[in-house]
Amino acid sequence: MAQYIQPKKSLRPGVARRIVFLLFLSGVVLGAFIKPSVIDRIVDKAKLRQFIPIHLSQTRFFVPFRFGLDIQGGTHLLYRADTKAIAVGQQSDSMDSLRDVVERRINLFGVAEPLVQVEKSAGQWQLVVELAGITDINTAIRLIGETPFLDFREVRPDGDRDAILEAQKKKERMDEDPYFIPTELTGRHVKGATLNFDQTSGQAEIGLELTSEGGKLFAEITKRNVGKQLAIYLDGAPISAPTVREEIKDGKATISGNFTPQSGKELVGRLNAGALPVPITLIAQQSVGASLGKDSLDRSLFAGLIGFFAVAIFMIIWYRVPGVMAVLALLLYITISLVIFKLVPVTLTVAGIAGIILSVGMAVDANILIFERMKEELNRGRQFEEAVREGFNRAWPSIRDSNVSSLITSAILYWFGTSMVRGFALTLGIGIIISMFSAISVTRTLLFAVMTKKMERMRILFMSGMSR
Fold it and tell me: Environment class of residue 447 by beta-carbon count within 10 Å: exposed (0-12), middle (13-18) or buried (19+)?
């Protein structure tokens, strides 16, 4: 029969109690960070404001939770992308560029962690935009929709021009430009824009600096169009059609037109924020009211509280003193999790809250494995200190393997899932990591802290169904 050898170094009750005191203080501080308004109310009711004049909820100490669209309310926008002018092999890259540009534009509007993702349905590329907490929807839509689509077009041959004009008299080929042909050079090749003024006329002009790829394309286009017009279109409308005098190799161009200083400044700002590489059209809009989001949050929190109290009652009735320790460790686990979600910050959705609740269950599962092992050791006649150590040692491999497999699953869901699934996976993964700390370290420390000779004689307090 295997014999247990007690380690030379151990956590004594006195040391454990000091650690528990520090954990308690840490929990109070972290709790104040989560809900500083509660601390302010306590200070006011206790008439301690003369000693604590600072209102925590009005300082930088207060960091609000970040909620997603389904809780905070906001707008869901669906755009259809026009990729006809883009080669099939380049459509995916162009849509990725479009997503990045729209994200930058939305960030200028002040949206916290907007969701912008690309989808392809029935061969049609779409852009999904979710703006949580935005009430001025029309401004947001205008901000995204007015991001300019810039492209350069060369002169169409005379024969093609006449054929298109003749067809348009018969109401045919109405979507074709009879005078200019689109080139591969578009707004996605724009590196930067500046507002300049012509030294002779004083007219406002837009100076463009192209990317390395754009510079090469511009050189090729200007080379084959020397002596011809090269039109610059903005959102499908011509704004300038200068004549190319020579090949331009430095990747710099000038847009001249009827710009006022104000309109030129606005265009430069939009181009620097990112010209859309693909034209988009708003095809659907759905608003989520704040009241609906609050109802979802209240229901989720209520379900979480019911689940927590049900688990706490079971743990205390079945495991007695260890169950109480597990519930205290669970409270600290929840506190640490909420603080991390504030600091990262994590955008909490209904699915994310479900991940938190599930991770609470996994934290309890780890405690159950440990306590059942402890029960076996106590039934074998071991001293309480030995039973605690042996219970944790024997349960650790199972806890480790189950949590690692869950973390792998969370990582896969986060990597390949949609926004809702990723929120669930993120909160679940963070919760699993913290739960391992609370189950292994905090619970064990609490058990060592209550270890006394009197408690040793009252083994019935440590678990039900255990022989005396």
Answer: buried
Q: Give the span between the Cα atoms of 40 and 45, in whole angstroms.
A: 9
Please, what is the average pLDDT of the chain?
A: 78
Q: Can you tell me whether residue 386 is helix, strand or coil?
A: helix
DSSP letter at 244 equals P
pLDDT in tens, 197-229: 888 888 888 888 888 888 999 999 999 999 999
Alpha helices in 241-349 (DSSP H): 261-274, 290-319, 321-343
CB 196 within 8 A of CB 255: no
Under a CB-based contact definition with an 8 Å cutoff, are residues 198 and 112 in contact? no
Give the span between the Cα atoms of 355 and 399, in whole angstroms: 18
What is the model's pLDDT at position 155?
93
Structure pTM? Answer: 0.57
CB-CB contact of 75 with 286 (8 Å):
yes
Counting residues of the chain whose pLDDT is more than 90, the rounded percentage is 7
Contacts of 273 (CB under 8 A, 6+ apart): 101, 104, 105, 108, 147
Contact 231, 180 (CB under 8 A): yes
